[in-house]
């Protein structure tokens, strides 16, 4: 079971490698990747350095080019694929069908992984990408229950990677326009959700307010932790009730399911968080490395250690975690 | 310009669904999309019932009847539903995810792609056309400019459809937000989304109508309305305008667009709605206001 870890910078990549990542995924510093935040990600020089560190330590490097290419600048996405191929990356993680066609034709030896942004949730959908583009692996959307993951793993002809830990997208990835509806910037085309430039923190008489492009996302009392105004985690009014109508601030944590995921034949666990600090990456990677080693040793006797749980909770949104869609009652 | 009735998004009782489509037969619509788009648990009409209704409508009407597939598939039951629709043997199918595309392409059947299939550029469009796609409904967040760029770069164009009126589907989740609001598990939801034939409005704490909750789907709080952009839609070579079913005033909406194609455009016939996406802006904005004409 491969541990696939995020890096938004060289120090984060080093932290991931030092703490036991089998593979690290990075993006280039533009809208070709789904964590397109200022000051993050890799230019050509840093990507080469990243590769050197990865190769020195015998790990793998994946490059996420997982947004949907815009019609007026398709060449930028093509160039990103060329750059990743030029680096001799171990795989590119793609979502756009047109771009996959380009990668298949131009770089037939380049290994293709299907991004979670492609939202493939059934065996025929996976088969589409395998037959058309020869994808080797797919990252499953965070919308499936454990049972559904198991059924899909039994039917899939490609390797499957699932999310282990990190920010929880509660909508099917690649099929959520909430951010673009409010801010004009979309995860699909711009690689951002609830972009920082649209965020406003305002001290009002009624408490601290968070706004996104002027829209009130939440209002916090003094004793409440004010979270980043992600649209799906705001407090809204439904039927006169003020509530986290979509989801509370929380992170996904599927560590307790590791034995079942391994038994199902899941080949890789992905940790989310290219936007997070090297210190964050170091802590969660070390914790997951220990857990995966433990499940490899103990199989079904695996139990989540309290210290791991604490480390992950401490690094979670709202200091809490959930099994998310893996667990039917959450749905 | 053809007018299409998109697939119904909300959960309506069977008798109401039958009555609704009966009424639609006497409107100037050219195309009717039928089928469950949102939730495979909804059982007022199962796959076989939708097929039967679609076939009945096809027999008595010269409108084109298209069957739409579920958007977010999670279970084998969902997939079997999609397979039944794709295997119908008679009517054109709108694929709303790649599972349906795969089934239809393997069968060598022509198909259309709905707005939740991510076709954002000419290369993706060409790939899917090579597999049998004949009609493309653009993602709701695409602007007029982007559509024009795609179409200008195409060697071969499909029929192009634009979501022109109605609450826009913005997101799909594993979670049922209607059940969550009612304090129910999704597995024991009692199909309560049927109590909300227009969905469940979600407002900001300042009363701004942001979204509409509809089971696992989240829709825009305001309807998109591209009536004011009718001239531009024609100039861009758009073939079909999609009007999304709603329980009330559907005939008025159809009439307003039908008048536009008979050179009798009157934007005041409908509420202003929003047109931000079409204008390359945040989707919730209204750019072409009353009196400002159909500016891009």
TrEMBL record, chain A:
Its cofactor is [4Fe-4S] cluster. GO terms for molecular function: 4 iron, 4 sulfur cluster binding; metal ion binding; peptidase activity. Pathway: Cofactor biosynthesis; ubiquinone biosynthesis. The keyword S-adenosyl-L-methionine does not apply. [4Fe-4S] cluster binds at residues 169, 176, 193, 232. InterPro entries: Peptidase_U32, RNA/ubiquinone_mod_enzymes, UbiU. The keyword 4Fe-4S applies. Signal peptide: none annotated. GO terms for biological process: proteolysis; ubiquinone biosynthetic process. Keywords: 4Fe-4S, Hydrolase, Iron, Iron-sulfur, Metal-binding, Protease, Ubiquinone biosynthesis. It comes from the Bacteria. Required for O(2)-independent ubiquinone (coenzyme Q) biosynthesis. Together with UbiV, is essential for the C6-hydroxylation reaction in the oxygen-independent ubiquinone biosynthesis pathway. Forms a heterodimer with UbiV. Belongs to the peptidase U32 family. UbiU subfamily. This is Ubiquinone biosynthesis protein UbiU. It comes from Microbulbifer donghaiensis.
From TrEMBL, chain B:
One of its GO terms (molecular function) is peptidase activity. GO terms for biological process: proteolysis; ubiquinone biosynthetic process. Keywords: 4Fe-4S, Hydrolase, Iron, Iron-sulfur, Metal-binding, Protease, Ubiquinone biosynthesis. Pathway: Cofactor biosynthesis; ubiquinone biosynthesis. Pfam families: Peptidase_U32. Its cofactor is [4Fe-4S] cluster. [4Fe-4S] cluster binds at residues 39, 176, 189, 193. PANTHER family: PEPTIDASE U32 FAMILY (PTHR30217), UBIQUINONE BIOSYNTHESIS PROTEIN UBIV (PTHR30217:SF11). Required for O(2)-independent ubiquinone (coenzyme Q) biosynthesis. Together with UbiU, is essential for the C6-hydroxylation reaction in the oxygen-independent ubiquinone biosynthesis pathway. Belongs to the peptidase U32 family. UbiV subfamily. Forms a heterodimer with UbiU. This is Ubiquinone biosynthesis protein UbiV.
